[in-house]
Specification:
The protein is of the alpha+beta class. The protein contains eight helices and four strands; from the N terminus they run E-H-H-E-H-H-E-H-H-E-H-H. A four-stranded antiparallel sheet has the order 2-3-1-4. The two termini are 14 Å apart. The structure holds 2'-deoxyadenosine-5'-diphosphate (DAT) and magnesium ion (MG).
């Protein structure tokens, strides 16, 4: 089954939106397979955002992301990478529709609350990076009510 890495950024933790963000993935039907609160190091974040290292906003992004703890999660389910990003909304919250997390809870791109992997390959890389100990494997009875 497909997996994605979802992260509540420091502003989301500080604003008490961790439960709300987890809830949206849970109520969709996606399975929680990893969950942790961590204060990430510069090194971890530089690796996570390595494709953005040359962007002008990178130093600001690093400062934001190291400003407090983040909540890292792995969710599992059909189409979870693409649909996970639909649940998050657009990178720029002002372009995000109401009903999405960013559309409902934030305004500026530099404080956009959450992260979601952008492809199956990035998800595998990010899950290995944030959960080097591995994720939790289990079966859910409720999957019978979610998948045909
Ligand atoms: P996403 O988080 O939607 O996958 P991304 O991977 O392109 O977007 O960028 C990672 C983060 O970097 C994004 O969530 C917020 C920040 N960012 C992206 N573009 C930005 C910009 N133009 N100005 C400031 N921050 C930006
Ligand atoms: Mg991205």
């Amino acid at each position: 089954m497909e997996r994605t890495y979802i992260m509540v950024k420091p502003d989301g933790v500080e604003r008490g939106l961790v439960g709300e963000i987890i809830k949206r993935f849970e109520q969709k039907g996606y399975k929680l397979a990893g969950l942790k609160l961590v204060k990430p190091t510069q090194e971890l974040l530089a690796e996570h955002y390595r494709d953005l290292a040359s962007k002008p906003f990178f130093p600001g992004l690093m400062a934001y992301m190291t400003s407090g703890p983040v909540v890292g999660m792995v969710f599992e389910g059909k189409g979870v990478v693409k649909t996970g990003r639909v649940l998050l909304g657009e990178t720029n919250p002002l372009a995000s529709l109401p009903g999405t997390i960013r559309g409902d809870f934030c305004v500026d791109v530099g404080k956009n609350l959450c992260h979601g992997s952008d492809s199956v390959e990035s998800a595998e890389r990010e899950i290995a990076l944030w959960f080097p100990e591995g994720i939790v494997e289990y079966n859910r009875f409720v999957d019978q009510l979610i998948y045909e």
